[in-house]
Amino acid sequence: MTELEAARYSMAFSLGFHIIFAAIGMTMPFFMSIAHYKYLKTKNSEYLDLTKMWMKGVAVLFAVGAVSGTVLSFELGLLWPGFMKYAGPIIGMPFSWEGTAFFLEAVAIGLFLYGWDRMHPWVHWAAGLVVGVSGFASGIFVVAANSWMNSPQGFEIVDGVITSVDPIKAMFNPAWLHQSMHMQVAALQAVGFGVAGIHAYFLLKARKTEINKKAFIIAMLIGSGSSLVQPLIGHFAAQRVAVLQPAKLAAMEGHYETSTRAPLYIGGIPNDEKEVMEYGIPIPGALSFLAFNDIDAEVIGLDQFPKEERPPTAVVHISFQIMVMIGSLLALVSTLFFYFLFIKKNIPSLFYKLAIVTSPLGFIAIEAGWITTEVGRQPWIIYEFMKVGEALTPVAGMQYHFFLFLFLYLGLGFLTFKLLKRMVNHYV
Amino acid sequence: MYDASVFVLLFFVAASIVLYVVLGGADYGAGIIELLPIRNSEIRRKQREIVNRAMGPVWEANHMWLVIIVVILFMGFPVIFQNVMVSLHIPIVAVLIGIVARGSVFTFRHYEVELTPTRAKAYTISFGLSSLWTSFWLGVTAGSLFRGLISTQSADFYTLYVAPWFGLFPLSLGFFTTSIFSFLAAIFLVGESQDIEMKKYFVARAWKTNLFVIGTGAVVFLSASIEGYELMNNFFKNPLAVLAFILANISFFVLWFKLQKRRSFYTRLIAAAQVSFILIGWFAMHWPNALKLDGIYLSFFNSTAPEPVLNQLIIALLLGSCFIFPSLFFLIRTFKMEKKES
Q1: Which chain B residues are closer than 8 Å to A419 by Cβ?
Q2: ipTM score for this prediction
Q3: How many Å apart are CA A146 and CA B49, to the nearest integer?
Q4: For position B2, what pLDDT does the model report?
Q5: Residue A92 and residue B116: Cβ atoms within 8 Å?
């Protein structure tokens, strides 16, 4: 492992770990607020039990998300000081908003967790809602900062010196909207399906049926609703990537040769040496159509980029395919759910079994999506301005940094999992 | 105009540091106090419950100040941020490991103990050790900034990344930080306990930790003079630092007087003021420098981001404050000011 690889793996692993807890921390408070709202409106104590059940999960998962997020804000500088020295002032704006939102979230979660019967019930309810709203906002801000790395703007370089910095313009760069929409909806999907799966499991065991059923419906409504919107957002995102980062799109699709009526490959393994797609099923013209709404449009291939400026095609293509496949599957399951819920008005037990199987898929898709966008940007840390290698810290021994955080997070992940399992078995 | 922007930002940095040290410090200190040996298991249990109740609603917010400090530094003072992150990589990683461990252990303990009370002890020990560890390394990091051993001109790993922080002064500042944090926590917890026995217990803890503060404080000055680091000299040359030092010491006496009467509101205020005086003295002594790099002081004023960035950051911080301070006030009012009614 070289120093650069070790630093990249450290960052990838820290982000990959944090993103799971961040996704939960910024969406699950909404689940909790819905149940809480139903309780305050109906006074049905099952909703109260459900609120408290979800609240405990949120508390534990939020704590892990908060500490791993704090680590990330430092790791930007610890691993990539060359990047932060230039980019800090430019992308600090979304980070300072993220900091504010994160702060509000921390205050609100304190109020909500410990504030039962210490304030007016509706004020208490609002505190829970603020946890969700500010968490959701902080997610948008962080993704806006990341999107700047994909489509940097809001500065000029004159003789190697950065001038005319405009943090607002940098924040609202051309990639911020599609990236943050895609991410936030993905979080709703993943957590919706994730939570629904747990409750489906207990429904099949016929434990606390009434509560679990309510929980299942709330979680599935959020998961399914977002899963039906996501393909549209994903399509919009891909079209933006086609314009903003053609190399990334080419790697996602394993598209080596610039061509009109470009084919879309289903499956397949890209071979970077021979520059061909192997074992894939091509659909002629489909890529041109998806990227530019025209089957005869020209799609830039990897051949337009020097070899040292291409992302590793196989990783990007395969993770992209995983994400798309899961996205399509979840959309299908969502359609089924709405069919059973609204038309059949009865959810068969087979569907609960299906929900258990699909439970982890949204999280896998989130990881795959982040691998796609991050690896797809390589070798750049700031697209077409700075390469990852130039940003690397001079501190030697990044391997130790990597293994340290690997074991720390594996240990923490293991403990979190054990505790949650015990909590779920006890409360759900 | 430019200087004014830097002043405003430095005010935010200083205020966040003070708030982090006072609020986050009491939080770390609570963990350290729980680590101190107790023979009576009933008191241990009560202590754990008081810490849980006192820190539970506020600990997340207490640690947000650190995130704010980091964001202001990397957006407003990128050169300083970059140099600190490179040269002090090792102590900062140590701090981060501690933050991860203690934040999760504290929350896990709360939910774990509800399910399996027998696990309380193991969690309390881990919480205490990680609190001690984190505050120690925070002190070490702070102690390395102006010591003059941060260097970028060497090929040797030890000189570049170990020597800046590995020495008597930073290490003793680490111990001083742990003592002052536990002192803050003891004072803070006096007011959090309902029964008189626990109040007495925490007052005793405050006395003991106060002795630690005086002891480790003396070691800090001693180690500075052994290292030939001109702490004393700089200190006495700076009237504001001396004034802050005197005020910090006077407040000790007032504090003990008030503590005898167990007036928790005033004792907290005074303890917080005392720690703030120490920090103000520290800032004053080094003003306007952020660190000493390759033997030269690096001032905040000549390592800033371009002016429009600073101004936008100030706007963001002011707007952010409009959200943060009212909500924080509401949080404190809800959990810390209830006793007036009873």
Answers
A1: 108, 111-112
A2: 0.90
A3: 41
A4: 66
A5: no
